[in-house]
Design goal:
The complex is a heterodimer.
Chain A lengths: L1 E4 L1 H11 L4 E4 L6 H13 L5 E4 L3 H13 L4 E6 H6 L1 H9 L5 E6 L13 H4 L7 E4 L3 H16 L7 E6 L8 E4 L3 H7 L16 E2 L5 H33 L7 E4 L6 E5 L3 H14 L4 E6 L1 E3 L3 H8 L4 E6 L9 H10 L8 E5 L9 H14 L8 E3 L11
Parallel strand pairs in A: 2-3, 2-4, 4-5, 5-7, 6-7, 11-12, 11-14, 14-15, 15-16
Antiparallel strand pairs in A: 1-8, 6-13, 10-12
Helix pairs in contact in A: 1-2, 1-7, 3-5, 7-9, 10-13
Chain B lengths: L12 E2 L14 E5 L9 H5 L5 E4 L2 E4 L9 H5 L5 E5 L4
Antiparallel strand pairs in B: 2-5, 3-4
The chains are: A alpha/beta, B alpha+beta.
Amino acid sequence: MRTVMTGNYASAYGAKLSRAEVIAAYPITPQTSIVEKLAEFVTTGELRAKFIPVESEHSAMAACIAAQTAGARTYTATSSHGLTLMHEVLMWASGARLPIVMTNVSRAMAPPWSVWVDHMDSVAQRDTGWLQFFCASNQEVLDTIIMAYKVCESSGVMLPAMIIEDAFILSHTTEPVDVPDQQLVDSFLPAYSPEFKIEVGKPRGFGSLVKPDQYMEFRYKAMLAVKEAHDRLLRVEQEFRNIFGREHGGLLEEYRCEDAEVVLVAAGTVASTAKDVVDSMREKGNRVGLARIRAFRPFPHDELRALGNKVDGVAVLDRSYTFGPAGAMFTEVKASMGSCKNPPPMKNYIAGLGGRDITPKVLEKIFEDLLVRCKRSEESEVEWVDVAGLPRRWH
Amino acid sequence: MTRSYKDIPITPISDTPSTMNLTGFWRVMKPSVDKSKCRKCTLCWKFCPDVAISLVDGVPVIDFRYCKGCGICSVECPAKCIVMVREGSE
């Protein structure tokens, strides 16, 4: 069924089509309409699920952990401060190897108080052991939820996943979305059947104490699972394409990168804007390309290395700042490309924090930098874009 | 014995109950009960955080396989019939 809907409804439909059995969530702007829609699905009987209204996001995740441990497929959704309140239990979900799927509507952290998009909340959870998928369209949100369950529930992975929607730009903007038939989704995504779960009559201890002589082996296995998720996602997306006739670009979506001289690396909706900018700059004869980080975890290390080997300059746009040497995506992309034979010159742009628009003009200037100025070593490696008081004019 | 990462489950799940962990060897001080002074109030039984006290005719019997010697029973006992003594001194 082709219709129009917001990113938040796309999330709700994704969870419904995936037949989530337990949904525990706490409302927060701009995620609320996901929870409302799912509550409506459960109330009307369109979705056979247990809906648990909880008193906090920490409790929402704890309830999902308990239900998933009992063998149910679970879903939740949150945003910004809700996600960071979950931090402790996010670690528990991944360490307990529970394939919970959650939408995070990515929103700036306060103070200053803000309800608009940036990626600080999501990026701050990169070390929790969750897979993280940044989306660029409402269709991708819906499709990635279905794919995420399949990736996460596969026996070599068994990890939770976070589907990331940009606040308002996706969450509250309507776009054409194809809602696939339930029978097709059922044929793609079988019922959740874990190798272990809480069973009456078979008492066992979950999340038991492990002494220093055995702890590292468990973490090593979790690392292997994230690596496995890399290959698994590619296979699952291929299978998805065969059934549903569309795909979203694997872990790193490369747009006109084949013969590109310079590329911009970005995640989320700004990457869609960047595709238009790539097209218009190509018309003017500039060999530019875009690499969209779709999966931040697992990280597309091999893909980025291969890209770094064939381009002359790379800009990384971070929609968050991590108070280290540079933005998080930049430091990681640089770590991957640093192992290229001839690492390309790289520059980090910090842009769009707290919902500030990243306009095509800003992206054009970044590409122009890349084509001309980025190769000069005296350039500062990190540049904050469009900050009042700084000398550079962006508009 | 450290097991290979290949031989462990993906997350720690124990098939044995925690009563397999005999924590009595942690003990430095040990509760000593003077049964003749006991008023059978059962406070020691209620307060023992390790459930290491059972009651026989209302009088505490301590399971030294689990008693860690924390001394809570001794503090709570209104009749002062439980005193802590150094392990091995009796």
